[in-house]
Specification:
With about 160 residues, the protein is α/β, with parallel strands linked by helices. Helices cover about 50% and strands about 15% of the residues. The protein has one domain (about 5-130): Rossmann fold, CATH 3.40.50. The N and C termini lie far apart (about 50 Å).
Length: about 160
């Protein structure tokens, strides 16, 4: 089992760090790579063609501006691809979001929020939990923790 996190640029590493933190908390192995859909298209195609046989089960693709990385990879691999649009200097990431989410029929990319590394990793964990019961149990624990945090907020609000 492995999640591959690919970034269009090393500047996307802050978003990747959020994803790796979540994956580590679920004990999910991962790898990190910089692959540009535009500057290294052959590398992107090679990665997408070989990801499955290299043990990858879910791909998280982080990219900004034109943000074609997730779509290029999804067009080649049969694996699930989660796109993370990165906030760019031009349109605050809206350009990236639209590039990732507006995929043509037949080439789905699951898309999370702009800079949403945490949710990308959580979605990857949920996808893997279909096959790996130990991840599903950790996901249940994670959801319970979220619930408890909200309940604690309500207790604090009402104790004043």
């Amino acid at each position: 089992m492995k999640v591959s996190i690919v970034m269009g640029s090393i500047s996307d590493s802050k978003i990747a760090d959020k994803a790796t933190s979540i994956l580590e908390s679920f004990n999910i192995p991962y790898e990190l790579r910089v692959i540009s859909a535009h500057r290294t298209p052959d590398l992107a195609a090679e990665f997408a063609k070989n990801a499955e046989k290299e043990g990858t089960e879910v791909i998280i693709a982080i990219a900004g501006k034109a943000a074609h990385l997730a779509g290029v990879i999804a067009g080649i691999t049969p694996l699930p691809v989660i796109g993370v649009p990165a906030k760019s200097s031009t349109l605050d990431g809206l350009d990236s979001l639209l590039s990732v989410v507006q995929m043509p029929k037949g080439v789905p990319v699951a898309t999370v929020a702009i800079d949403g590394g945490e949710n990308a990793a959580l979605l990857a964990a949920q996808i893997l939990s279909v096959k790996y019961p130990e991840i599903r149990e950790k996901m249940k624990e994670y959801k319970e923790k979220l619930k408890e945090e909200v309940e604690q907020m309500n207790r604090e609000l009402n104790s004043k």
